[in-house]
Design goal:
This protein has 245 residues and is mainly alpha-helical. The protein is built from 13 helices and 2 strands; from the N terminus they run H-H-H-H-H-H-H-H-H-H-H-E-E-H-H.
Length: 245
């Protein structure tokens, strides 16, 4: 009989000795996300949890200052563009609210074994709801993705839903002159917030592509990378003296 690896026994000594990245990779394998599990094993390790690292991480996020942009300064600086966007939003083709179908798709295709937010809520927990609970979930996500969020959801709840856990990964290249590694912060927001954002993005995808065309290919454009390569190749063929930077 072939010997079993200690890590094959869930909760055994092998599992206890596994690193956080290995445990996450095992969860991803059980969820059927093999390519993501490989990336989890090959990813940069988390930064050491020390006071010096935390102080450096806080320095990555500039505090609010008088020169920081506000809603009023943005409206004053981009008044014409915001007015144009408002006129575009009044078109009949632009959805007025997130439809139920978009919310259902966002919930159905939420990735398994995704990192939870501060509450620990995962998509797997939502899929375990009864039919009644799932209907209520769709209504909640619709509420969070619409204008009623401002008037119907208490401020303390919106503040909690806007929270995110911060994971500090180390950048390649070793330590710097300060004796600390380079830091790559990864935010892990709440699952309900991600579902609302996904449903909203799905709803406005077509309208956003029309609004931003032809200056961008990142929103609502299928096969964007292939299209960009073909357009670039055609341009270079027509202008052989041009350089691509």
């Amino acid at each position: 009989m072939a010997a079993q690896h200690p890590a094959d026994h869930h909760g055994g000594q092998g599992s206890a000795r596994a690193t956080p990245s290995q445990r996450r990779a095992l969860r991803l394998v059980r969820a059927g996300r093999l390519s993501t599990a490989v990336r989890a094993l090959c990813a940069a390790p988390p930064a050491p949890q020390t006071a010096a690292v935390w102080a450096k991480a806080r320095g990555l996020f500039s505090p609010a200052a008088p020169a920081t942009g506000t809603t009023a300064t943005v409206e004053a600086e981009f008044a014409a563009k915001l007015a144009s966007a408002a006129d575009f939003g009044d078109r009949p083709t632009v959805p007025r609210r997130v439809p139920r179908e978009a919310v259902v798709v966002a919930i159905r295709f939420a990735p398994r074994a995704a990192a939870p937010g501060p509450s620990g809520l995962r998509p797997e927990h939502l899929w375990a709801l009864s039919a009644v609970g799932q209907d209520a979930l769709v209504a909640v996500v619709q509420l969070l993705a619409g204008d009623a969020l401002v008037s119907r959801v208490p401020a303390v709840a919106t503040h909690a839903l806007a929270g995110a856990d911060l994971l500090l990964l180390t950048k390649p290249g070793g330590v710097g002159e300060d004796g600390l590694p380079g830091l790559r912060p990864i935010g892990m927001p709440e699952t309900l917030r991600k579902l609302a954002a996904s449903a909203l993005a799905m709803t406005v995808r077509t309208a956003a592509a029309e609004l931003f065309a032809p200056a961008q290919l990142g929103v609502g454009v299928s096969s964007a990378c292939e299209r960009l390569l073909h357009e670039l190749g055609a341009h270079v063929a027509l202008h052989p003296g041009h350089a691509v930077g």
